[in-house]
């Protein structure tokens, strides 16, 4: 009350708000021009940073005219085969004022070089050194997780680690605001990692990278703290948001301890765990996809509620990513989810709301202890590189994923709308399924080929050849490869030529699949036992054990689904031939002939199914195996699925077909039908 007896109506001041995280949308498709228009539209909608998705040829170091690029150009991202396309990609976007994240790994050095050159061209009044000092952003550049989950590696682990260390040394000295590596636990979770495995394997990767940088001698002891301070992480957040919150707090604690105790970093700011996040796409469902919206919100809360472990940048998938390529409106919806939380709620006005919680502290301690044990196991076998080459980490991920799939199929792990509460009203969001997603521009590949041809016609071939020769010569020494890469970019070399020059020196690598040593379904159960009996009986009728070839044609490296199919087929009694990722249709046909298989299963998630599946069918027919049944699995729109069946495919499976044992039963049906046994 005031002296006059009136109530004091003074409104209390609200607490000062924290600055929101960087809000991004992972985007890029078809052509550089189309992607540039999308970026400028998203920035106008309030997005505060760019996150660039590159197509698979760009990620794996091939030009659009490579046979391996067929069907893949512009499908899962934007093609950038040369400097001209990089110019188009960022036209009218001032790179010295932007924070750009580039999801690029094996070819990260090359894409960063082209990005820097475009920024130099945008700022002719500044020296290249001055421009470099203004650039801010991130290159993903985590090759170890590519061997374990995502599959866009090119070179062997040691050579890849050398490229990473060279980039880190260069950026620390020349692009000090750049995060040269974004160590990814995101893809580990999608490959099946438990929270403990996600923590341990990501941190083992960081240890391998920092040890390599220190051993290279390219960074002084005084500058090494800056290296640690520029390491960032890219994590996954699942729908178990309490556990995810605890996982992030465990990351903060473990990273602080590792950087302090192993590397002697004294500045707390340099020990800070800095991370961006894309919440879990693996958990998005094709069935009742409207439920994905609340899943995305819960997953976002897991990385934003805890101030002491809050993400620095967040990008959210769209509700319809399990159906196909999201439209701009779908991406806008996900951006608005972030903006409502950041600007309408009071979250950013408070200190950490979990501080002092006994429940949170106990779960964090449990995760930290488990992660430390697993880190010690990996370090005892020689570190992350040794654990990749031996297949240890990959087998563990495949086994953990198989266990999760088994829990979903048994109903122990509930997925709303998939294995419980399946009754649903018709959804207006998916009334027109083909209209609920964006289709890739069918002209993108032709446009990229024309652009490549024109680019080569205009450049100085002698200058390009000299630059590539100098790059190869440097690769044979221990010189930092960033400078010769910049020279090659300025000369007009292409993505495929840069990678090809290094392939000649470094060779290529095929990572272990993890399937042979993976643990499958421990308890068969009645359903799997029945399928096993059908497999055995059908094999006897056909005169031998049933053999299945699981193939991944094209450049799609997301092998999680193929691996789980291979493991469950083995558990069901099939003899399984699985040779890993990145096979040509010709190689798949040759394997089918050599192994005398009864069925070919193709897994494609990149959208190249309409090009690559017919190539396999035609190849089998030419080899005299036109009657061999072929099935296809992947993110395949319903209209495409119908077209594939009309083309001769025996069955099409999409994410809604989550029951692997039922799929195995379908394998038997297809084989019996093909041999006239029913």
TrEMBL record:
The keyword Secreted does not apply. It comes from Nocardioides zeicaulis. It comes from the Bacteria. Keywords: Cobalamin, Cobalt, Isomerase, Metal-binding. PANTHER family: COENZYME B12-DEPENDENT MUTASE, METHYLMALONYL-COA MUTASE, MITOCHONDRIAL-RELATED. Signal peptide: none annotated. Residues 545-674 form the B12-binding domain. Transmembrane segments: none annotated. Belongs to the methylmalonyl-CoA mutase family. Its cofactor is adenosylcob(III)alamin. Heterodimer of an alpha and a beta chain. This is Protein meaA. The keyword Metal-binding applies.
